[in-house]
Amino acid sequence: MAVTLEEARWLGWILVKALMRFAFMVANNLVAVPSYICYVIILQPLRVLDSKRFWHIEGIMYKWLLAMVASWGWYAGYTVMEWGEDIKAISKDEAMMLVNHQATGDVCTLMMCLQDKGMVVAQMMWLMDHIFKYTNFGIVSLIHGDFFIRQGKSYRDQQLLLLKKHLENNYRSRNRKWIVLFPEGGFLRKRRETSQTFAKKNNLPFLTHVTLPRFGATKIILSTLVARQENGNPAGGDAKELDSKSKGLQWIIDTTIAYPKAEPIDIQTWILGYRKPTVTHVHYRIFPVKDVPLETDDLTNWLYQRFIEKEDLLSHFYETGAFPPLKGHKEAVSREMTLSNMWIFLIQSFAFLSGYMWYNIIRYFYHCLF
Asked: % helix / strand / coil in the chain, to the nearest 5?
């Protein structure tokens, strides 16, 4: 099939734009990530003197870095429409997000839509596949205290023990408030067949838009972070860090991500921007953690029910282009999430100026020493 001159020009422009965006992304990383590391190193004395203030400053820089990643999609026309309950109302409480997982773009989507939720991003801990440790952002996540989990039966028990220890050592000591978990344990396209086979063997619902979740990480998080009362004293992991002001984990945010025509965005598309502008839709439902069972069987059933509901939500979305209204409401209400162009400009300017400053400082000391 012959390509017309107009199509050739359009393809050429897409290629040029992708190359320009890739070059900017590389430059962005070369100044922002090393600058973040340098600031963290220079602030180590503050970490000893005032740990809480240190992690507050680190969290702000972390939020700015995630905003830069969000901006790559924003300027490509990849925006977010939010549905369901308003999670801004609980942005100062401790919460866990349970998110369906379709592609690497899910993480970028959350980085974008959580930017306007106060200090949530700064005080957030991510649980992500260990492969992300080896990306350009891996060193930042390691410093921030995110947890990288290895998939597979042979690693499962060991990883859960490591997760519990990580939460006890890092969650409240670094003043974390929210934790993000993808309970399916992998991308939809990779796990769907296995999940459906398991469902058939165990007389469970046949799901196509999501997969049956794994309960291990969820159980560890709940048992470690939920404040319990036993003989008048806080119980559960990290109890020594649970001061009188902390109420422990209070909310579960059931988060459902939907892409038009069920075509998810991957990280390559987010960076290069070769796909046409797309609106990703994110639906929230909030559950009080006190209503969530902790016993293994009951928790597993509770999680299965949430993902069965996700299946219904996504089926409705793919049929109608919108999520259904919340229970007790006649109409579904959507909210367009926006990023401030001025704010993005300011943090990008700060990143490039910081990169220039640290380059000159390091070059000066290099010449002094050598």
From this structure: 55, 15, 30
